[in-house]
Protein 1
Amino acid sequence: MTMAQWLTAGMAGLPATMHLEACGIPELVDPTKRLPDLYGNHAVEALPWLIEAKARKSLGVGDMRDGQWQLDQATAEIAVPHRQVLCGTVLPEPGRWEDDHLVMMVHTALVGPSPAGGVHFLPDPPSDGGEPSLDETPDALLSVARDQLLVFRALAFGAVQDLRVVPLAGTGAGTGGPSRRQNAMRPLERDAGTRDLRGRVLAEGVPYERIRQEQDSAVQEFVVGRIPGIGLHLGLSRGLYAACARLHQMQQEIPAEEPLFPAAPLLVQRGADEEREEMSREARRAFYEREDERLVTIRREMADAYRTQEVPAGLLRGAPLVVEGPEARGGVLEARTAETYMAVERTDPIMSGHR
């Protein structure tokens, strides 16, 4: 699914993708139907996309036919034109990732509406951390927090390096909200407010605390950490970080009757992957149902956490507040949305050969 996400959202113009089983539409969340993995809504084509991802060390025509069958299962439920995308990834053998090619096969087709279909639209997945402003509905905040929960868990519990709190200029009134355009990633060198904030602290010697007290709405703090080995720094605004913390806490309190990702059975036959996939889908379906029972309360608590930016003790892991320019870390390339932050180092092993 990582390669399918890279292809469709990274290269083919989808704003975002989401697990089909999490779309909330009854016809498309039944794990017994073995439906495709992902979906998204393409803004230019104005069509929903159904996406199935297959990956093996020896991917064959049987796997691709099985993926097409899963796409057709979902197509039978959809009453509007849409696109099918089937992605097959051939993985290198263990120990040969540096020597062998990673091969990807893609089949795509435009499909007309199904006469028997009852699904007339698919809800938009959150896009690029499509961050909510304070006046949005709790449903929007919940959707974004789910989208960013893995980033939060990496920062709060993972083996990240150089964890810190980074102040940036606030986005200002009217720059948050649900607009995909307003929440597009933009380079920080174009952010005049952040340049001014850093200049006052670093060049003029104005204490940061004074700036924050005088212009609280003009400053936004981000929890940022370096992902080891790839030269990438990721961060979330303190408000979104606090909301994710509350969502994470709620999910930890849900009793799990079965593991969401069962241990691989000691099987070698071709059907083992499909068996594990069905087990995992069923466990996630049960988890989502138990989560729904708690969502009325959690939406309100997440909105309060987002507004107050109060993070539970220990989840900031003693991160210091750091005001610095990009040159302090070897000239990182920084970018941000209203609620997320990313920086790429010049020594990044992927990007360094293209600079």
Protein 2
Amino acid sequence: MTATQTPVAASIRPRPKMISYLRLAKARVYHYVYGWALGLLLLRSDGFLSGGTPLAMAFMLVGTLAIQWSASAADDVSGFLNGSDARNYAGRPLVTRVRKPLLTGALTSPEAIGFAVVTWIGGILTISLAAGVLDWRVPLPAMVVAFSVPALAVQYSCGLKLSYRRLGLESTIFFTGVCTVLVPYWFAAGTVSRETLLMSALFGLWLLLVVSYGNASDRAGDAAVSRKTLAVVLPPLAFAVVLHVLVAVNAVLLVLLFTTTRLNAGFIVLSAPAVALQLAQLYYGVYRRQLRKARFLVLISIDLGFLGLATALLTGRPS
């Protein structure tokens, strides 16, 4: 082991830089694509997926991923520099620690910062290209909301450090999740439908559940650097109540989606597997304190939730 290597870095086989950058971007968290896909399916269902819209939506997908990757990289840089990642990942299995290339030495801070900047600029450009393909006939409020996402993303861990303020992390995650569904539809359709609003809220809630269990797992490290997540600022019992409320709100939104819109009400059964997994999340996360298992179940529930909504849009909506 050289003088510049950490014990973790010395025990990890070298990987291509591209792999390290993908780990920095948390590219394995592919779930943001689901939000974009729901927006696409809603456009198809409403007859807006024609002309230059498919190309515009392709640019929106690239922009969505670029902004997500930029925010993830900036968050890792912040966590590396303030030491919270070192605390949160101390003692974890090697297969988990390799997901933090700054901790392992696979990437340097300047490389990570450069990646965050390049992907952020790329996201801005591709969202602009999406509007250009649509001949800039995008409503001004939609443009404002669309560009507020990268503006907030860059302030998540840097600048204003929204994730270090009370409700800042949770609000940012929910808002960006909502916009992942809402903005593509709004760009192309020029308006928003009730289905779009409800699905956007559902998707934002799903991402918030993922982050909530992760924050509970990282509670000690976040508290040490004054990151004021709900898991840090609330007593454990109160935080458990919040998790129960989020799952309950998810159920209410599903009922509203299938009873107050043109979706076939009978297709609500397609969401039953996702709801069942959310109840399992509560059991393992709150009552068994197996937080990483609960977070894994949240991710699977998003897979199932997306499949249920996608199937309902493709086959369960009258023309």
